[in-house]
Structures are given as structure tokens and as C-alpha cells.
Design a protein that fits this description.
- This protein is an alpha+beta fold.
- The chain has helices spanning 2-21, 53-72; strands spanning 24-36, 39-50.
- It is 54% helix and 34% strand.
- It has a two-stranded antiparallel ribbon with strand order 1-2.
- A hairpin with a 2-residue loop joins strand 1 (24-36) and strand 2.
- Helix 1 (2-21) packs antiparallel against helix 2.
């Protein structure tokens, strides 16, 4: 149980650090604009997603808490 808490805490903490360093990421959203039989016409739209500050803080805090609990567990 101790090792599981430590590993999970480190993973959450690292994800929080990544979200803190790089809070936005870009991706392509594909939209179908027309369909005629088996032929489809699609267009790709660039989208940007932002990681909320509250989620970043929650990842960092929960990671630290799990690391502390894991180090104190028997």
C-alpha cells in the first residue's frame, strides 16, 4: 500500500507540474460538412484547450498529500 500511494502521488505531482508549465494544448477537430453516398467532405478546425488553474492546484496538492501519506504508511 505504501508503494502504491507513493507512485500515485508522484504521478499526480508530475501531471500538476506539466499542467503548470504548459497550461494549454492544441488539437485538431474534424467536422463532417457534407456527405453524398459514400463520399464525405470534412474540414479540420484547430482547437485550443486550457487546463484550469483549480485542476492544476488540485493535482499538485493531492500529489503532495499522497506522497506524504505514502512515506508515513507502514
Amino acid at each position: 500500500m505504501k508503494r502504491l500511494l507513493l507512485i500515485l502521488g508522484v504521478i499526480l505531482f508530475v501531471l500538476g507540474i506539466v499542467a503548470l508549465i504548459h497550461p494549454t494544448f492544441d488539437y485538431q477537430k474534424r467536422e463532417e460538412i457534407a456527405r453524398i453516398g459514400r463520399i464525405k467532405a470534412t474540414v479540420d478546425h484547430p482547437e485550443t484547450a486550457k487546463v484550469p488553474v483549480a485542476a492544476t492546484a488540485a493535482l499538485l496538492i493531492s500529489g503532495v498529500v499522497l506522497i506524504v501519506l505514502g512515506s508515513k504508511a507502514k
